[in-house]
Amino acid sequence: MQKLHKAITEIDVLSPPKIYIEKILEAICENLAYSFCTVIQVDAQGKGSMFACYNLPKDYPEKVHSVKVPVLSSPSGEAVETCRVVVVHDPLSEARLAPWYGVIRPYNIKTMVWVPLLSKGQALGTYVLYDTQIRDISEEELQSLEQIGVMVSIAITSNQYVDQLNQKTKELEDEIIERKCAEEALRESEKQYRGIFNAAMDSFLICDFNGNVVEANPQACATYGYSYEELMRLSGKDVVHPDYYHLFEQFLRDVQTTGEFHAESVDVRKDGTPFNIEVRGRMFDYNGEPHLLAVVRDITERRCAEGVAQESEERYRRLVESSDDMIFSVDRAGVFKTAGGMRLREFGLRPEDVVGRSLDDLFGGQDAKRYQERHRQVFENGAAMTYEHPFEFAGKTKTDLTTIYPIKDRRGVIELVGVICRDITARKHAEEALQKAHDKLERRVEDRTAKLAKANEQLKQEIDERKRGEKALQKAHDELERRVEERTAQLSKANKELLNEITDRKHAEQALETQANELEEVNSALRVLLKRRDEDKRELEEKVLFNVKELVVPYVEKVKKSPLDARQMACLTILESNLNDIISPFSHRLSHKYLNLTPAEIQVANLVKQGKTSKEIAELLNLSTRTIESHRKNIRKKTGIKNTKANLRTQLLSIQ
After folding, report:
1. Which one, of 54, 24, 41, lies nearest residue 157 by Cα?
2. Distance from CA of residue 392 to its chain's centroid?
3. Which of 350-358's residues contact partners 24+ apart within 8 Å by CB, and which partners?
4. pTM, whole model, 2 decimals?
5. How far apart are CA 86 and CA 109, in angstroms?
């Protein structure tokens, strides 16, 4: 116990609360030989949550909280409620821990100890000790654990105070930001007001209580034809048509008494032209004093449009009357407001027989209630509704396609619903015939599907055979590659020997400068030797080219024409590209320019040149991505671009 107390006293009390608590848990485990430790905190609502843990996986608290029962339903709740230490041996037999059996079973825990975190006579939570052995806890140990619980509770309280302080600080910062935003919004609002005032499409006139104009926007000047200075010298009455002076006087009275005014009137432009207007008035603070604001809108075009609308309405009425459908409009009470359509005659009705009557009058009973409910839904939702309505008439079954849609007034409020009833009996008969044909087609498709399944099985067998052929081709390719590598090594060795011989001859030239004739003979012999080497080299290249084109490429083309999946086609494409690289000068020049590249590095370089990523190269070569990255680093080092920003693929493409 002395070691434990010493270890705890050595912990820096100025550490953050959570770190301080974790160090206490570590000291308990190391000095009392417990296996694991956790801390459960109880919030103001009485809900328990894991605050810290020691020597357990990071996801352990998440697993504990994933159980859909309160943490305090475990023995933690007893420790918090009684403020006493609770010890449980063999936790997997403790019923209160049953929801967490799956969480604690992997740790082979034999003893669990819940120690209350006491502060001012109340428990702020518990800290829990886990042991993989069954242990007896002495009274001295219990007292020490309770004392440590007080220290942990102080740290938790400190953490709560820190959280509260941080929250208050954040709230204060948010309030400061909000005030700055409000000030900025106010400045922006003033700017926007002036912008709206100047850019408005309506005419804005600000008048004093006597009707004199004290401010106007550019649209007002344009509408009335006055300059700004001229308009400032006028009274609002000067731009009103004489026949409507009484409305101007009413504008002054109503705005000053009720605060609002709205009317349609006629004003006069500077050139004497009258025009129709709609004016709205209200009180308005201008330069800190109350004024009258008149918003004037030119409605000349609207008046013309209303005449056009009346003409359009008459055309619509004639269109309805000539329609093959039945068309109605019904109000919220279920009363027909309009009726039309030539189909009314089919039921022996005229428009005047329907208009003014209710749904109950025409249909009655359940039919009327059903229609009324559908109308109510359209009135409430504002969405059109279409449904099919089968019925019996004159001994025959008929089907109507009925559409109910909202009709809105100028304010956008739904005042009526429109109903269109179209006879689709013939179409329904056609659909039934079509369904029968569809069922017959489905049966034929099922038969065809069975035949295709059989053919697919045969195709799978052919694919297996082709895979075996591909393996044989791969083996031949590997053997060819090995031979090429051996021949390349032989040529490299011969080249080095030749270089050594040239060096020796240069030394001999320096020693025998006086023997010009003999030197000339040696040079002649050297040229013959170099020529012979070039001829051997060309002969080898021609043989390799001939063998690949005659013995390998034809089979690659055959496999390429056969059906392959995406991965097989990718592998075949890379095989074909590598064969082309073998018989092309790139691999030769790459190996020649950088003689210290290994065969595997040359293979990776070829794939990098083709634009493959490290992951794709790893999959194609059956190697790990880390191995491919290592090869790429070696290639960069050997090609002289290590520790530079040069692109490896660009560097390889430059070797042409």
Report:
1. 41
2. 54
3. 351/321, 354/328, 358/333, 358/334
4. 0.31
5. 16
